[in-house]
Design a protein that fits this description.
Anti-sigma regulatory factor, single chain, protein serine/threonine kinase activity, transferase, serine/threonine-protein kinase, 12 strands, kinase, elongated
Length: 317
């Protein structure tokens, strides 16, 4: 039996907690977790610093709350979905009737960095709906932009309030609608210059060679991941897109930006790249692999066609 606000609710109960002070944050998060422990529900904190340390200090020692490292869990959206689903499935297999999580996605970025996590917040309304999960997605209003706060309202069906109250988000958009919206890619600073390499209708092997030649400044792991993503992106463009396919590469010390553009419309599935393709579904697997391999992936559809951009190396905001 589920307890608290989701009592009688089936599936995922997705709430946002937007707070303007430490006291407001703790007034909601602490009882949320302790009530879960008292009910015998797995209650887990997945926060970075400083909020994670603040919450840990406010909770009684050895109170039964579990902790995961926020930075490791929220490395990239698609792997967060994959790993959470595995954890939730394990909890249910162990008999959990409800799982509580206090989480915090990276919300300090801007442009396409934040948009990737906003898409994650929308997609998990579907991705986690086969589990009895109740989560508080926390956002510190002192550190989040107006754009982030707007997207939070559109991707969360509810807001958590002090005293265990929950209010409906009137701005909430169904995931199929939100994820179908198109936004132009925010140009990376490297893209202000001409690309260091440009190939037309390349084979996957030619694309990998061009990236490898310019990727000497990346770590071996980052370069290997990028090569996987680029190979999948070019294969998808040749198989499901329309010619011409254009690969562009920009390079600087420790950083590579790669775009693959084809003249097609891109995937029709709004969840493509975030969730694995359904059995028998045409396409989608390669984009899902690319999102797992590369830490920074953005896509956009415009008058030139459909573009996927992959960035490896040091972060620039």
């Amino acid at each position: 039996m589920r307890t608290g606000a989701p009592a009688g609710h089936r599936g995922y109960y997705h709430e946002a907690l937007q707070y303007a002070s430490d006291d407001e944050f703790l007034s909601v998060a602490v009882p949320f977790l302790l009530d879960g422990v008292a009910a015998g529900e797995p209650s887990i904190v997945v926060l970075g610093t400083p909020s994670g340390e603040l919450l840990r200090d406010a909770l009684p020692a050895r109170c039964g709350v579990g902790y995961l490292t926020g930075g490791a869990t929220y490395d990239r959206p698609v792997t967060a979905i994959r790993d959470y689903r595995a954890m939730l499935a394990a909890c249910v297999a162990d008999g959990a009737e409800q799982i509580r999580i206090v989480g915090e996605v990276p919300s300090g970025g801007s442009g396409d960095t934040w948009r990737a996590w906003a898409r994650y917040e929308s997609a998990i309304n579907v991705a986690f709906d086969d589990f009895p999960l109740w989560s508080l997605c926390t956002y510190d209003e002192r550190r989040t932009s107006a754009q982030v706060r707007s997207d939070v309202a559109r991707t969360h069906p509810r807001f958590a309030r002090p005293g265990g109250a929950s209010t409906t988000s009137t701005a909430f958009a169904e995931p199929s609608v939100y994820l179908s919206e198109q936004h132009p890619l925010v140009p990376d600073p490297l893209q202000a210059a001409l690309p260091h390499a440009e190939l037309h209708d390349p084979s996957p092997a030619q694309a990998r060679a061009a990236v490898r030649d310019l990727g000497a400044g990346l770590t071996p792991d980052d370069l290997d991941d990028l090569l996987v993503g680029v190979s999948e992106a070019v294969t998808n463009a040749m198989r499901y897109g329309r010619s011409p396919v254009r690969l562009r590469v920009w390079s600087t010390a420790g950083r590579l930006v790669v775009t693959v553009t084809d003249a097609g419309d891109g995937p029709k599935d709004p969840f493509a790249g975030l969730l694995p393709a359904a059995p028998g579904q045409l396409g989608g697997r390669g984009l899902w692999i690319t999102h797992q391999a590369c830490a920074q992936v953005s896509t956009a559809r415009d008058t030139d066609g459909w573009t996927i951009r992959m960035i490896a190396g040091r972060t620039v905001e």
